[in-house]
Structure formats: C-alpha cells, structure tokens
UniProtKB/TrEMBL annotation:
Renumbered residue ranges of the record's region Disordered: 424-443
Name this polypeptide is given: BRCT domain-containing protein
InterPro entries, sorted: BRCT_dom (IPR001357), BRCT_dom_sf (IPR036420), CellCycle_DNARepair_Reg (IPR053036), RTT107_BRCT_6 (IPR031906)
Occurrences of domain BRCT (ranges): 1-105, 106-202, 212-295, 308-397
GO cellular component: Cul8-RING ubiquitin ligase complex; nucleus
PROSITE patterns documented for this protein: BRCT (PS50172)
Biological processes per GO annotation: DNA double-strand break attachment to nuclear envelope; double-strand break repair
Amino acid sequence: MSLFEGHRFLIIQSAALSAAKADAIRKHILSAGFDDESAIVTKKDSELIPLSNDKLVNITLIVSNTTDFVEYQLAEELMIPVVREDWVLDSIAANLIETLRPYSPDPKYFLSSVSVCCAASVCQGDQDAVFSAVRSFGGIHTDLLSRRTTHLVAVDLDDEKCQMAAAFNQACEKEAILIVRPEWVFDSIVSKRKLPESPYAVNTRDSAAEPVSSSLFKGQTFFLSEDFNLSSRVLSAIRALVEQNGGTVGMESRANCCLAKYRAGEIYQLALDEKWALGNLNWLFWMVLHQEWIFPGKKLLHYPYPNTPLPEMENVVVSVTHYRGDSRLYLQQLVEIMGGQFTKSLRQYTTTHLVAAKPTGDKYKFAQEWGIKCLNHLWLEESYAKWELQDDSSSRYQVLGDKLPVSQSVGHVSLEVQSQKHAADSQLEDITNSQDVPRKKQKTVPKPYEITAILTGCDKEFSASDLRNLNKVGIKVIEQPNSSLNCIIAPGVLRTEKFLKSLSKSPKHILSPKFLTDVLSILDSHKKIEDFDKSKPKLEKYNISKSIKFKTDPKMKELFLDPGLGAQNITNLLQNSSPDLFESADFYISTTIPGGPDLISSIIKSFGCLTCAVVDKKTKSLPKLVAQARYLLCEAKDTQLQNQFRKLAADDRFRIVEWNWVVMSIFNAQLVDRHIIDEN
C-alpha cells in the first residue's frame, strides 16, 4: 500500500515554492509508491482563474508554502488541509503520515507547533477552555503526556505529570516539555503570536502579553455562563480577550450575547427569551481567529452542546476513512458529544459504522466484507443538527465520493431550525423526555451502588460509553466536587486540587481506579443488572489504604501526623473531614505562593474560610478581621512579606504558615502544629 494512497494533491507554485521545488515534491510523492500521477495537480499561485469548486472538493491535500493563492479561503471552508512542502518530505522520511497541523503555512495559526497536555492541577473547566483555544489557533492537545508533547499546562508543580515532565527533560538534558500556566495560552491569543514561555513558569505571576486590539465585538456585551466551571484566572483571560476585541463582559441585565457550554439552565433560557447571540467558546475563538462575526448556529460546534447524550448513540461505534486534519477531528467531536464511540481502527465485531469520504481503501473494503454500514458525513452532521439519530439506511447517506454535491461538503450543515429558540426548545424537550423514562424506572429498580465519584490522577481514560455503563449500576462520575459527592477515585493519596477539594465534601470512600475497570469488566459479561448485582465488586477490596505503605513511603510523613497508624489514617480522614476546617481563620495569601493565589484560595474556601486576600510586601493594610485569627500563607524564605504582615496584624492573633501546613491540616482533619513559621 502506498504511503499516500487515497490522496489527491494540489501543489501551489509560488515565490516560496519554485517550479523546480514543486516538481521535486511531485517526484518525491511518486517515489514513495504513489502510482496515480493524474492525482497530482500543479498550479501557479498567480493564476487568477481558480479551480472550480467541483474540482477543488476532490482534492484531499494542498501543498503550499504560503496562503497567498486564490483557493485558500475556499480550502479552509471545505476543510482541505494545506501544508508546507516539508510535510511531504518528513512523512516520507518517517514512512508514516505526519500530523498535519504543525505544517500549516498560515501565520494566524501561530500555535501550530504546539502540542498541549494539561496537568491534573488544572480544573476540568480550564482544561476544556485551554484545549478549545489551542485547537482553534492551530495546535493539538492530548490527555496523556508523550514524546511529542511540547507544553504541559499546570498550576502546581507537585502534580504527577509535572514530575514526569521534569524527569523527561532531565533525561533529555533539555526542556523538551515546557511547563506553563494557563495564561500563556490566552495571552498568546491576545497578542496574536506565540509568546515566550519563561515568564509563565508555574511559580511566577509574570506576563509577556502585548495585546493587539480590534473592534470586532464593538457594541457587544457578553455574559459568561457558570457552566464552563472556569477558574478566576481563566475567566479573567476570557474577559481580557473580549475586551481586547472591543467588547465587554457584564451582568445579564446588560448583555446581548451569551457564552454557555450547555443547552440548559436559567441563563441559557434567559438568552433564548432575550434573543441574544448564543454560542460557546469555540464560537468566540473562531471569531477572534478570523476577525469576523458569524451567527453561532452556522457551525454545529459553535452552539452550546446538549447536556446529555443521544440515547440511540449508546451502542454506536464510528470509524472514518479519507477524512484528514480538521474534518476528521470535527467528525470525532460530533460522535463523542452525541454519546457514541470514535475509533481509529476498524474492528469487525465492534465498529458499527464507517463514515467514508469515498468508496476506496482498505477500511472501506473490509467494512463491506464485514457488513459494517458505510455512510457519508451527512448522517453524523444531520443527526447532530436535529438531535435525533437519522435513519442510516436512507439513500441520502449512501452517496459517497465525487457524487456528493459541493454544497454538502463536510462542515456545511448548520442547525436546521427556523430560530435558535425553536431549536433549543425542541432539543430540551427531547432531552427532558429521554430523561424522564429512566427516572421512573430507577424508583422501582434500585441500582447496585449509590456512588457519586470524582476521578483525579487516573491514567486510565474512561469513554462516554464507559461512564454511561457505570451510571446504569449507580456510579455517577462528576467533573467537579459538589455536595452529592461521596467517593474519590484516585491511584493514591494526592495533593491535587480535585483531591483536596473533594475531601471538603466529607466523602465516605477513597477507592482505587481498578474498582471502575473491574465493574466495567463484569458488566461486559453480565448484561443484565440483576446478574451484575450478584457478583458486583465489594468496595472494601478497593480501599486506597490497601495500596499505601504508610511506614516506608516518605510522602506519608508529609501528609499524616502519625504514619505509624497505617490504614487508620484513611479511616480517620473519612470520618472527620469537614467543610468547616478553616472557618476560624482569615487567610492572606502571598502572590508568589507556588500554584498561585487563585488556586490556593479556591481550595481553602472549600473548607469554610470566608476571607481570602492576596498580599505582598507592599500591602499597606488588612481588611477587618472576620474570623478568630489571621493566617499568612507564604514560603518560609519570604521574610520581607512576613515582617510586613507582623506589622499589619498588630495585636490580632495570627499565624504565619507554609502550604504544607494547609495540606497536613486537611489530611489530618485538624489544624496541625507543623510547618508554622511564626505565631502570636
């Protein structure tokens, strides 16, 4: 099989890619085993008459060292990848198809060389925002660290991924993976260029932003829905991005635009009633990237997502063929948001549908032999737009390749409704109806478990289908700690934001991730809930204390007052953890505290602290004391700040403590006497 099998190339000659180089590229492609010389078209960028839509839509990849050619805008609309010549050379040298995005010649995709991973210390809402931003401006993102990761976004260097990245860098004897705060991504977007990373080290609060302003959002006031679950640092970054482009972020009483993640909630309904422009962060980033205002319903993934999956998608497993770059990513997102599974590989007994751009290639051949349904992308797009799984036997979805009109190219389907309000109302009604039925059943058929869990620090990825199966047996996995949480699932005792905040909810269990994998494994062999209930895993078997060596693990000395108590430490923690742990203290947090004062404040507040103020050595006064004592949280070496705090605290009762004091207090469910720098 040829390395470039299935491709149809358009090579653009220009001042940046001479006729001789263009011919050399053509010969390189042929030398790699590509035997269809007619599928390589060469064209000068100076030719004023562009290729027709019908011809261009059949092109799968454009090789050009510049975007200054007639078809470029149309290529973007058709999601046809445009890459520099070195993509061809590097793919041949590696004997594999290299990732397309890093080879974009378009300067507006200034993050094209970036591959981002987020540490567990970055909350899920911030991770989603970072991934959307990086993806919009040309980069790629992954959930796991790899050799190709260029940037790890983090807010706490104690995070396990930070330690892995540091070890990798040490082995490479260079900073192969740069560890940066989330602000680096958003400040780069505000500055419209990839900023230097050094000012954005996790233990700093520096900035290198040079905002480039525009009037794109002039007259627009955005309201940001809370359903994004963003930290204050990322909320500030989004606000700065809107303001830099001429808009404002305000209260709902002044808004005429709304940014929301889901099609649910009071604010979403208000936006519909008031007929505001209503989109998500993908919409915002797209407009900033293109400096163009568009209706958010024009592109499917610009409108808020439904907040529950399509029930009919539960057993749907989709693979694709002959879709590359952005079009492939787009189809994957549609599948996953609807609640199906997306797989790169075609599997005979599990893949249910193959979405094919044309009826050729190995995947298509085996799909035909194995009886897997082969459809065009319209089936996915129209199912999403109507929020109803379309009939996959319809002849409309059987048309493949050149027979599909240009007007029906991938990405051209919008929300098929007369108005946003009608669409949302009907979709919300469908969602509500689909939820009502199982709720009634749940009252008569109790589930094997009653667990609301949060996952943190887990290497294992759980798909949307996994989470639905877990929910069937009473295990609900949530993204952020809330009052219903009663279980933490983690590979050990961690100091991550999620783990610490979850302890403030007084959970009943801390379990190993193996609990979930064993539940899913048993579910695979026992399809009926009644059968599963008889052999369900016992919770005590997965108690995290069973995998901890309390007496020999040095980390346990940093967390517990008496590691010699062994597993009793976990028992005491679960019995005594309280959301009121810090209610007797007003906290003042150093601007240079590792992890940043925003993150640290959010953790402390989750344990009942009412006052959290940020201070530095230049602070002139402290607010009126609300609790029983003032606490300064800083590093031991920050003597100037400590001296200033002593003066400002005057005769008030105070303590100066390190971050480890907070951590130990949380894990011992009491205010400890360790890591205290000073007190009166």
